[in-house]
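Tokens for chain A. Residues wanted.
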């Protein structure tokens, strides 16, 4: 008789408040059962490295603000990437390399602290300013992801340094300011890519809020059995992602998992569900995942650009992008309703967008 109780094992793991990193440090040599992902096809993970035929979109933002010819080329490149991949990388984005490096180090500093220090931040209370835990959907997802995360709403109300973990508070604040500035510029380019006025998406408050997620993916004794993040698309308008040099992020493109290459100094940008919704499917919120490895931990920083959940702003397909031949494909929603549905559904491998289709 199988005495395994997923519920009690998950609860014991959660109650320890030390995350996947703590699990690994306890000396485990096998992945606990509740992390095993039945959807992984070991063959499929092997295919990815053979995908050299795909050239991941890399966009140079140098001169985009003051050279009209360069801007037009960038607008075209962003349009194509957003319609096909839903992902692209940007270089010469204006954020100094020292800031990027310090932000990555900040994540390592947080997760490198003693357990007792980190436990002060461990919570499942989504109303907390800083939420550190393993998997927001730990209790509801089909399988847990091999990842610990610090989650913090950074804008529009920038936290005071004392509200954040002291080992990374200064860089979190500085990096937020830099990403907000880059985000505004990207939303202007995206608006133009849709044939709209530059400030259209900004006026819709798509960039009003910023949530920062510090991800830590420990090395894994059986990487073929679990994922760092299972297949999903993001619930926001736009995500700006900073990663260390270890590969792990993969995008589903033409039904194949493609590795996102590491480009020094680059940031990865991807379209979120709400931007697909307001663009009436012009832009694709692509599904992606993170694979883990057995040799070393990987860290990343995801900045989710979105309206605040307190906002009453209504989102539906933009009028200019809808016509008799191309009717609205989604019903109206708010950032709060969308986020709430996304959270309750969890990362179950299906798209949250389908719930809002008409």
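Reply:
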């Amino acid at each position: 008789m199988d005495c395994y109780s997923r519920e009690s094992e998950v609860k014991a793991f959660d109650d320890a408040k030390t995350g996947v990193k703590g699990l690994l440090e306890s000396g485990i040599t096998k992945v606990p059962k509740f992390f095993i992902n039945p959807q992984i096809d070991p063959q499929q993970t092997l295919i990815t490295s053979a995908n050299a035929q795909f050239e991941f979109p890399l966009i140079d933002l140098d001169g985009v603000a003051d050279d009209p010819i360069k801007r037009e080329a960038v607008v075209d490149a962003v349009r194509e990437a957003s319609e096909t991949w839903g992902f692209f990388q940007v270089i010469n984005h204006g954020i100094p390399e020292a800031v990027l490096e310090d932000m990555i180090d900040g994540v390592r500093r947080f997760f490198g602290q003693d357990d007792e220090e980190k436990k002060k931040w461990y919570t499942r209370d989504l109303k907390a300013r800083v939420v550190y835990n393993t998997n927001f959907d730990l209790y509801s997802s089909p399988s847990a992801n091999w990842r610990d995360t610090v989650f913090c709403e950074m804008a529009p109300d920038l936290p005071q340094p004392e509200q954040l973990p002291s080992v990374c508070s200064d860089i979190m604040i500085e990096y937020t300011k830099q990403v907000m500035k880059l985000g505004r510029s990207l939303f202007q380019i995206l608006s133009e890519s849709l044939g709209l006025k530059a400030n259209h998406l900004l006026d819709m408050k798509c960039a009003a809020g910023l949530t920062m997620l510090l991800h830590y993916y420990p090395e894994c004794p059986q990487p073929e059995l679990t994922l760092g993040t299972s297949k999903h698309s993001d619930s926001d308008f736009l995500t700006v992602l900073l990663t260390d040099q270890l590969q792990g992020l993969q995008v589903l493109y033409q039904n194949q998992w493609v590795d996102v290459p590491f480009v020094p100094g680059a940031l990865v940008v991807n379209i979120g569900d709400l931007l697909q919704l307001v663009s009436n499917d012009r832009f694709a919120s692509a599904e992606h995942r993170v694979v883990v490895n057995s040799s070393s931990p990987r860290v990343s920083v995801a900045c989710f650009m979105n309206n605040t959940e307190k906002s009453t702003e209504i989102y539906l397909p933009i009028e200019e992008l809808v016509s008799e031949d191309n009717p609205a494909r989604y019903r109206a929603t708010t950032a709060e309703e969308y986020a709430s549905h996304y959270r309750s559904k969890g990362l179950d491998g299906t798209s949250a967008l389908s719930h809002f289709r008409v």
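The first strand starts at residue 58 and ends at 60. The chain has one domain: 7-356.
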